[in-house]
Amino acid sequence: MIGWMHHAPRWAVISACGIAAVLLFIGASAHVTDLLRHGLHPYDWAPWWLNLYWSSLALFDTLAAVLLIRGKRQGIDLACVIVATDLAANWYAAYGIQDSNLVAQPGLQRLAVFAALVLGTAPFIRRHITN
């Protein structure tokens, strides 16, 4: 492990976990709302597998947030998988399906910042969480 990662202040790690958990809960609530309003296929323009993936985030975002709050290492691991795959899925949707760009997609911009936060702080968080 890189030396300076070893010395990350515990308060900074707890803050990063808290922020990530809150943002994951916000994402989960958006996916739950989509499920309640439109079922498993909330976006008519997207293929079924992409709709199914986004709908599954109602469960996985919540699970990652709960694990982070409980101080479990699996929480940050799951959060990393979620943000990486969600960013890839949204990037594909914007560029591959909608023929759009990053400037025209504020949701993709926010997701990219969130992914940077989670992936950038993951080594610090993992260092301080024992199991």
Structure description:
The protein is mostly helical. About 80% of the residues lie in helices and about 0% in strands. The chain contains five helices and no strands. Helix 2 (about 10-40) runs antiparallel to helix 3 (about 50-70) and helix 4 (about 75-95) runs antiparallel to helix 5 (about 105-130).
Topology:
Blueprint: H1 3-6, H2 10-38, H3 48-69, H4 73-97, H5 106-128
Helix pairs in contact: 2-3, 2-5, 3-4, 4-5
Short description:
It contains five helices and no strands. 79% of the residues lie in helices and 0% in strands.
Which properties best describe this structure?
single chain; about 130 residues; mainly alpha; globular
Find the structural class using helix and strand composition.
Answer: mainly alpha
Please tell me what the overall shape is: globular
Radius of gyration: 16 Å
Q: Strand fraction band?
A: under 5%
The helix/strand order is HHHHH
Q: Count the helices. How many?
A: 5
Terminal CA distance reads: 17 Å
Quote the average pLDDT.
90
Major β-sheet, in short? Answer: none
**Fraction of helical residues:** over 70%
Low-confidence stretches: none
How many beta-strand segments? 0
